[in-house]
Amino acid sequence: MIQKKVRPVFSRAVFATSILVLSTIAFVALNTFSTVGFQNARLDLTDRSLFTLADGTRNMVNGLREPITLRFYYSEDVVTEIPALRAHAQRVRDLLQEISAASNGNVRVEEINPQSFSIEEDQATDAGLTGVPLRTGDKVFLGVVGTNTVDGREVIGFLSPERATYLEYDLARLIFSLANPEKPLLGVVSNLPLDTGAGGLLLAMEGRSEPFMIYQELKNSFTVDFLEQDFDRIANEIKVLALVHPKPMDPQTLYAIDQFVMRGGRVIAFLDPHSEVSLTAGPAGKPVQGYTEASNMPELMKSWGVEMNPNEVLADKLRAQRVAAGARQRRQLTDYVLWQRLLPEDFASDDPITAPLDALHTGSAGILEPTADATTVFTPIVQSSPEAMILDLERVKSAPSPDDLLRAFEPAGERFTVAARISGPVKTAFPDGRPLADDEEDVPTALKSSKHLVESIDDANIVIFADSDIFDDRFWVQVQNFLGDRIAVPTADNASFVVNAVENLMGSNDLISLRAREPADRPFTVVEDIRRDAEEKFLAEETRLQTRIDETEARLAALRAELPEGAGAAALLTDAQEAEMASLQRELAEGRRALRDVQGDLRRDVDALGARIAFLNMALVPLLVGAVWLVLSWTRRRQRATRAQAAGRSVMSADTNTGAAS
User: Fold this and answer.
1) Which residues of the chain have pLDDT under 50?
2) Res 364: pLDDT
3) Which pLDDT score, from 0 to 100, does residue 455 have?
4) Cα(first)–Cα(last) distance of the chain, in Å?
């Protein structure tokens, strides 16, 4: 019986075409749906969630009591040929949208494209935005103008790509300022020229002062009130007092600070056994008049339960910064143990001041310790690494070279405290009341009405940092001049620490989580360990060779000094002298060659590691990919051969069955 072959309704070509059309429709529909339905969806896979709104931002915008409008001026048509700036502008746009979405409608974002010679361009200029001129004659605007409902206005003139890592903080600070138009009052007592820079009042009067960047950050967040160096009372309006490397204070001033703490005032103090920033030369080549090299307040510190030895300076080998040292012709990078780059493992992870920080740069810092009879709790928040030691101040003042410090370095095997939080009940440092000045016979009438407190009303909250060089711009920031504006590009979180501490003492923590959200410092720890071991290994050999060269040169000089003067002096050399001089010259040449070899060996292990990594990147990975391809190809061929053999056996079986049926 012959069976009739049934033809399929759809041919294979029609079926394939239908699948292709349906796949295209599904692809377009899925993209359209995802564009509309998941417009604000984000998946942040970065290590520190760098592209996710911080909790501080969310808390701030959720707690807004009035609407805030952010006008984003962006010259989109002009930057089409500048890919980097266009990508940065897109990041700004995305972040503004995320902030608006998290604010429950309290933050409204308007985007404006100010084209050349347009009304929008005039509005941007009038608002204080900075237009960057291009060679084409056009101007690029990339800034934000924020307003609230009570005529408050804050402006970011230009969102520079150099501050891209601080973008969320800059925007959040603008919103915070609009939501809190009255800035908290911060009292400052300082013997550093925070508001004028190293130029002092002379350059300030000429309009050429450059304030410390940390002072600028403080002004952005607080109303800064400088107190005179000598005072007898602190106003009740001041909730936080910052003591920044103050000069030695008279008893009446110390008493005023003591009573400020007794009645609940908060203090942050930056004290220093050896302040390098105070020694910074001004225009005349000298430090600012009235500078003080050291600062300390032993009377108040004792009542607070903490002390700082004025003759001790911290040295840290593991956290040492790299500096250029040596003679100009042999200048090279080396570790300077007096300057440290402290890392997250050195910070208290549970303290809101230090938890978000990545790095702090300090210089010739002091060491804090709790006193034996303290009534307070001493909590370290910044410490050295375990490979640290204490140096005598006089040794530091003698200006030893970085190599000399490394040769004599003997780690103590313990961490030393650089910054601490002091909390708990405090007893006054003046149990007998206000001390009288030499020219006083009685307490001033204005102070008689104020009650003398012998104990703090509430638990004290004091932060002490044993370094003032944290304020030095050279230590932590690169300042760039952009169309007359100073733009800070931080290399460490010194400003973040200072502003975090003040805000925490003020009682506001929303902005703390936003600072220092730059990509975490990721040092090549293996390379650093190799470099440090190599330097330690060859430093002694380099010293020995340099001593040998110096001795050889001295012997040669002494031998030449014995020769009589005149053109024929060389002819008067004895055979023994000629042989000795030739030997010394050969020894000198050999010593210098050996010294060059030792200095070159400092890079040998690092270069070898670099070569291995380059091999892994350029050769091993392609080889692995090729090997995987060969394995997959061989596996496919085996599978095809197996299927072909199975098909052959099936055909033979079918032929056998057909023959049997016939």
Assistant:
1) 1, 329, 516, 518-521, 567-571
2) 95
3) 93
4) 11
Q: What is the per-residue burial (b if ≥16 Cβ within 10 Å, else e) of 549-571?
A: beebeebbeeeeeeeeeeeeeee
User: Looking at residue 385, what is its pLDDT?
Assistant: 95
- The answer to whether 277 and 192 are in contact (CB under 8 A) is yes
Q: pLDDT at position 567, please?
A: 44
The CA-based angle 373-378-381, given to 5 degrees, is 160
- pLDDT score, position 12: 67
DSSP bridge partners of 485: 482
What value, to the nearest 5°, has the Cα angle with vertex 193 and ends 192 and 199?
135
* Residue closest to 392 by CA, chosen among 284, 314, 323: 314
C-alpha 271/C-alpha 423 separation (Å) is 18
pLDDT value for 636: 82
How many other CB atoms sit within 10 Å of the CB of residue 272?
30
d(CA 304, CA 428): 9
Q: What is the dihedral of CA 529, 531, 537, 538, to 10 degrees?
A: -170
Give 619's DSSP letter: I
Category of 483 on φ-ψ map: left (φ > 0), alpha (ψ -120 to 50) or beta: left
pLDDT on residue 519: 47
Cβ neighbors of 524 (< 8 A, separation 6 or more) are none
Answer left, alpha or beta for residue 117, where phi above 0 means left and psi between -120 and 50 means alpha: left
In this predicted structure, what is the pLDDT of residue 176? 84
505, β-bridge pairs: none
Nearest CA among 501, 625, 426, 494 for reference residue 221: 501
Nearest by Cα to 51 from 95, 14, 111:
95
**Contact yes or no for 304/426 (Cβ under 8 A):** yes
Is 443 within 8 Å of 434 (Cβ atoms)? yes
**Distance (Å) of CA 123 to CA 119, 387, 494:** 6, 57, 36
With beta carbons less than 8 A apart as the criterion, state whether 215 and 197 touch: no
Give the ranges where 244-318 is alpha helix by DSSP (H). Answer: 251-262, 298-304
Two structure tokens written together for 585:
């010259």
The predicted pLDDT at position 42 comes to 61
Q: Which of 388, 370, 371, 366 is nearest to 379 (CA)?
A: 370
Q: Are strands 266-270 and 460-465 parallel, antiparallel or unpaired?
A: parallel
Structure tokens at 21: 């059309």
Instruction: Phi first, then psi: give them for residue 345, nearest 5 degrees.
Output: -65, -10
3-state secondary structure of 335: strand
Closest C-alpha to 272, from 287, 294, 256, 303? 294
Q: Where are the alpha helices (DSSP H) in 400-524?
A: 402-407, 445-448, 473-476, 494-506
Q: Which residues of 424-460 are buried (b: 16+ CB within 10 A; e: fewer)?
A: bebbbbbeeebeeeeeeeeeeeebeeeebbeebeeeb
pLDDT in tens, 273-291: 999 998 886 666 677 777 8
Q: Are 248 and 230 in contact (CB under 8 A)?
A: no
